[in-house]
């Protein structure tokens, strides 16, 4: 780490993790400094500068720190180290490798190298001597866990350079020189496999960032069918404790159409993070046949780690995502839970004695969340390839209150809202995503509408809207039945209610622990939605409300058996044939396609 001898300082005040430093020279916003504390050096970040005083947030416990301690400013921002060897790693918010640390608790002032400097990587050149290159261009690649890891021209370079020399195919460490590039002025720069980048500055090594247009297949029906997220899209999952956020995150991580998965556990309770560490290495990867952890990086900051490091963890995770996106890879970034990140922002804002916003959160919370979410997206790279970061955050509102500031401000930034319902969770309707309150704004995008028409058929969107209408009218019918009683409403109210239940049980509910039902390909989702809607369109005749419930329960059971069977298998077709016979029992007029 380079040292800036010009600026030093002395601690003059301490308010928990906020330390006031009297400085003797220039310092910059978000600059990194180290505070001497005995034999330890505590890492901190400048968050406010007033005159000759710098307010710094310390990424460690400040217990025992006293005024008069010396501070050394480094002249650079909070950075991450980027290079091969980051997959399957468990990092903290400052990118310390947790697997290299000893003991149950992290030692204060103990920082580790995020990369393995001794390991040799098999390098294959992609550029040639004499090529003109700019920041982010690919010079070569190495293979990591079956994934191509591109070695790029450092992002910080702004000019056009010429490749002066490039090593031959062979085995090299990350610190070996693999290329020399030359500027127009004749200045030469040595390039290794490692580069550093400040976490709070977006990496913009791309040509353009169009609006997302392609559906990201997650295998989760209530997302893909009703409220799809796009590749490069943003979404968030708010929900009270116990509504299944973690299982849903695991399902999306495992099944989504992504090359790289990054999990940011930013301030969750330690036992929940331990579950991620224990369960992720055991999850089988349906895409590669290996373990999911082989293409996953975990950034962990539990709620008992320093609050400032919790804030850094989400930025560290996003920067790693942008790095992999620049390689032309599809990245899925999951943050759990951004409420804890917002609480870290609130804590530092309060210590700075800033004017508080709603619930004492910072006044600019909305802007901070929007800026962060805007770093996700689908991009066209300069070499005509494309990459993407799809970001899904979870929010843990206190008491399940979806009107609190973090949820409300995230709602403004994210395009998809997957609200988890306590009632659905209590009645074991998983995933507990509320089909009425949840939405995807991407369905309004003409780009996605065209893509869905092409890949899913011209009537797909009409069918999705129709399914939502049936669910809404079913909810209204259920409310009437609850008020007036089963025999106090006409039979068609029961018909509406049970047709909505049909969609709920067959399309929305899914068994994350069943080998077949856990993930549903889009072709099967389309087939089953059309099957269910054709039943909804069928007019039935019943003598009383008991007959309605009994009949639809049998239909639901039959369709669920189809969900648990291999698609288009003999077993599946057998259940479908029996379903056709059932429908004839009460159908006034059976549709032609339902005739068996």
From TrEMBL:
Domain ATPase F1/V1/A1 complex alpha/beta subunit N-terminal: 20-75
Catalytic activity of the protein: ATP + H2O + 4 H(+)(in) = ADP + phosphate + 5 H(+)(out)
Pfam families, alphabetized: ATP-synt_ab, ATP-synt_ab_N, ATP-synt_ab_Xtn
Domain ATPsynthase alpha/beta subunit barrel-sandwich: 113-200
Binding site for ATP: 239-246
Top-level lineage group: Bacteria
GO molecular function: ATP binding; proton-transporting ATP synthase activity, rotational mechanism; proton-transporting ATPase activity, rotational mechanism
Sorted UniProt keywords: ATP synthesis, ATP-binding, Hydrogen ion transport, Ion transport, Nucleotide-binding, Translocase, Transport
Annotated EC: 7.1.2.2
First-level EC class: translocase
Gene3D superfamilies per UniProt: 2.30.30.650, 2.40.50.100, Bovine Mitochondrial F1-atpase, Atp Synthase Beta Chain, Chain D, domain 3, P-loop containing nucleotide triphosphate hydrolases
Domain ATPase F1/V1/A1 complex alpha/beta subunit nucleotide-binding: 219-440
Example of a GO biological process term: proton motive force-driven plasma membrane ATP synthesis
Function according to Swiss-Prot or TrEMBL: Produces ATP from ADP in the presence of a proton gradient across the membrane. The V-type alpha chain is a catalytic subunit.
Recorded family membership: Belongs to the ATPase alpha/beta chains family.
Name of the protein in its database record: V-type ATP synthase alpha chain
Native source organism of the sequence: Marinilabilia rubra
